[in-house]
Write a structure and sequence with these properties.
Keywords: Lyase, Molybdenum cofactor biosynthesis. Homohexamer; trimer of dimers. Pfam families: MoaC. Catalyzes the conversion of (8S)-3',8-cyclo-7,8-dihydroguanosine 5'-triphosphate to cyclic pyranopterin monophosphate (cPMP). Pathway: Cofactor biosynthesis; molybdopterin biosynthesis. This protein is α+β, with helices and mostly antiparallel strands. It is 27% helix and 28% strand. The chain contains four helices and five strands, in the order βαααββαββ. A five-stranded antiparallel beta sheet has the order 2-3-1-4-5, covered by helices on one side. The protein is elongated.
């Protein structure tokens, strides 16, 4: 508390910049290895006919959600190749779930990524969700170019110095 009784203002720092403002990869060498989990989600909304095609499995390119699941897993393993300052990490588990919402003609994707390491797996989970939704778009764009992806976000994170975090808390 300050002398006036108000809490001190804490200025957050961006860890990917050094003292001179230059971009750098964060040094995680001194961090303790812990189990780390990240859960991300997003959704893609489409025309009802496109949704029905995905649900019934009658898309010309094949099993849309099956292919999107594999794409998500592949993407999670390549996050460090796509995001310049993201550390390459050994994933111990990647789970991809889809939920179909007929009322809104939307497919929701949730990815859980896990590792035992010195840095978190948020980027891997977020990349996986993004690529899963992009794959749905790619597989269905011939019949519905107006599909819309939204709500891509981290919803939960466990492990590391900051502990357990849940969106909205």
């Amino acid at each position: 508390m300050t002398q006036s009784g108000t809490p001190p203002i804490v200025t957050p720092t961006l860890t990917h910049f050094d003292a001179n403002g230059q971009a750098h990869m964060v040094d995680v060498g001194d961090k303790r290895e812990t189990r780390r989990v990240a859960v991300a989600q997003g959704r893609i909304t489409m025309q009802p006919a496109t949704f029905a095609m995905i649900r019934s499995g009658t898309a010309k390119k094949g099993d849309v959600l099956g292919i999107a699941r594999i794409a998500a897993i592949q993407a999670s393993k390549r996050a460090s190749e796509l995001i310049p300052l993201c550390h390459p990490i050994a994933l111990t588990r990647v789970a991809v779930e889809f939920a179909l919402d007929e009322a809104t003609s939307a497919v929701a994707c949730t990815v859980t990524a896990e590792t035992v390491g010195r840095t978190g797996v948020e980027m891997e989970a977020l990349t996986a969700v993004s690529v899963a939704l992009l794959t749905v778009y790619d597989m269905c764009k011939a019949v519905d170019r107006g599909m819309r992806m939204d709500g891509i976000q981290l919803v939960e994170k466990l492990g590391g110095k900051s502990g357990h975090w849940v969106a909205g808390t």
